[in-house]
Specification:
Helix content: 25-40%
Radius of gyration: 22 Å
Strand content: 15-25%
CATH architecture of the largest domain: 3-Layer(aba) Sandwich
Strand order of the largest sheet: 9-8-7-10-12-16-14-15
CATH class of the largest domain: Alpha Beta
Largest sheet: 8 strands, parallel
Number of strands: 17
Structural class: alpha/beta
Distance between the termini: 47 Å
Number of domains: 2
Length: 357
């Protein structure tokens, strides 16, 4: 990674929500997701360099708070993220997040960024990257079940990266579908609002499920999934939360990000611990095949993994250079003598007293 040239070590580039939105609009939503997708592919090809561990999760009756760390040996990154489905009833986001990159050589942070918006972008980019390797060739129609905050990003990412032209939408809350139809009306996609899940998947080659409730659910039943489909199961994941009927899993070739985490949180928590799955990095690096036959059902059991957030932060780190879409945050103590931190505090106290006089 190229380094920021900073005159003072105490300042860390910070991308606020306001600057993230300005940056996205400056580059273009489609291009940002394409850039993140490229970074994800680059990092998945070098997967074996990364520290990998299931995210550290603190569960409660209301939701979950998680830390997602990783490092490629040169740069360390982490994301703080929550998942609280009931928040929307109180006018709050289900998911909020922020993230950080640091230089492994000295431990100093080099970027702090909002990741509520960035997580939505990287989730959609990751979905589209998986579909690039797993979905039927020349697929043009996708169904999205669950039309909340992630819906539009998914539709736009699949249009940009996979060439999707038609999107069918369904949510148990019709207002969510109306919102998505409105937001995507000038996207160039052909949109269809559907009244049932069964109607939504009719004619689709790709099905995306992105619901938020933290419970065992059956968003897709076995009869809804025909041969040759690609399923993109991305709904908010945690132990005890699923979206697909178990029978679908047994009919599908299953692909994961980091399998030890997916066995805890993903659809495959319904299956035996030794059930065979393929990790996507193996497909991207050419070690294993993705889609093998036209009639095969492929399933991306996505739970989100720290390397993807690392990739998204890496993209943002590069994108803000030479721009005004960040601010310097006075975040790190930088005493003249690194052994004299107390003296730095004392000198500041004297300066404050002098200024007050």
């Amino acid at each position: 990674m190229a380094k920021f040239h900073r005159d003072t070590l105490n300042l860390v580039p910070f991308v606020s929500v306001d600057n993230m939105m300005k940056l996205i609009l400056h580059i273009g939503v489609d291009e940002v997701m394409a850039g993140i997708a490229k970074a994800i592919e680059e990092d998945f090809v070098r997967w074996e360099l990364f520290d990998k561990t299931p995210r550290v999760a603190s569960h409660s009756n209301e939701g979950v708070i998680e830390l997602m760390p990783t490092s490629d040996g040169e740069v360390y990154g982490f994301k703080y993220v929550n998942g609280h489905p009931k928040n929307t009833k109180d006018g709050m986001q289900t998911v909020t997040a922020f993230g950080l990159l640091a230089d492994v050589a000295n431990g100093y942070p080099v970027l702090l960024s909002e990741m509520t918006i960035l997580t939505a972008l990287r989730t959609a980019a990751m979905s589209a990257v998986a579909a690039k390797y797993l979905a039927p060739k020349n697929a043009k129609t996708m169904a999205i079940i669950g039309n909340g905050a992630q819906c539009e990003f998914q539709a736009l990412a699949f249009k940009k990266i996979c060439g999707i032209e038609n999107v069918r939408l369904y949510d148990t809350d019709p207002k969510a579908t109306e919102k998505a139809m409105f937001n995507l009306q000038n996207s160039g996609l052909n949109l269809t609002s559907c009244s049932t899940g069964e109607d939504c998947v009719a004619g689709a080659e790709i099905i995306t499920t992105c619901t938020a409730d933290k419970q065992y659910a059956t968003i897709l039943t076995d009869n809804m999934v025909g041969s040759g489909m690609h399923i993109n199961a991305i709904g908010g994941d945690c132990p005890g939360k699923t979206e697909l009927h178990k029978d679908i899993l047994y009919r599908s070739e299953i692909f994961t990000e980091f399998t030890p985490q997916t066995r805890i949180e993903g659809e495959i928590q319904q299956l035996p611990d030794d059930y065979e799955v393929t990790e996507l990095w193996e497909v991207m690096s050419g070690q294993k095949e993705g889609r093998k036959a036209e009639g095969q059902i492929t399933l991306f059991d996505s739970v989100g993994f720290a390397v993807e957030d690392f990739s998204a932060l890496r993209f943002i780190y590069q994108a803000i250079q030479g721009t005004q879409f960040y601010e310097d945050l006075d975040m790190l103590a930088d005493p003249d003598d690194p052994r004299d931190l107390y003296g730095m505090v004392q000198r500041a106290a004297k300066q404050n007293m002098t200024a007050a006089e």
